Amino acid sequence: MIKVAITDDQVLFRRGMASIIHAFDGISIVLEADNGRILLDALQTAAELPDVVLLDLSMPELNGIETTKILHVKYPSVKIIILSVYGEDRFVTHLMELGVNAYLFKNVEPEEVERAIHTVIEKDFYFNEAFLNAMKNRLSSKRQKILLTENIASTLTSREVEVLTLICKQKTAQEIADQLFISVRTVDGHRNNILEKTGARNSAGLVLFAIKHRLIDPTELL
What we know:
Layout: E1 2-7, H1 11-22, E2 27-33, H2 36-45, E3 52-55, H3 64-74, E4 79-84, H4 89-98, E5 102-105, H5 110-123, H6 129-140, H7 158-168, H8 173-180, H9 184-198, H10 203-212
Parallel strand pairs: 1-2, 1-3, 3-4, 4-5
């Protein structure tokens, strides 16, 4: 059973979403909170942590961005899915740079929320067409600012680039191992090396790195 916490100051939306998620197979709501501060206070005394936090961006006391930063420090194993009305490209890519595992707009269908929850547990990230289009737009913008060091990509070995490309295509460690005829342990080793070289927080950050440095075309992931 995947344990989910939902944090949103809009009571009607939060309770409606909780009701929808309760109907999903293999997923249960274990915590509801009005804002990031209440969520963090609840996690300090929780008997067990949620596997996934659904997090709104705009909340009083502690917003989604600041909450994300604290969650990464205190609870790095918890997956973070942003649910937001903000569709601007800068919001989407900035949150991915901070290390969230998925970014969904609040107008998505319930089935996509269910798919995103299962996917971030299984593969560490979930990217939909809206995110990939946002990345395409950011890449084509003349004002695009690449925050990661330009020459990092050249330090990756050819095998690391192969592993990174397959991660971008949402292959599991076992699937990557089978395709490259190597062990899962070796795949994990390559992934850890890539994380260290790029400074990415998780697999979502690796995909962001690959797209920014044009190691993969986001249209290939649609």
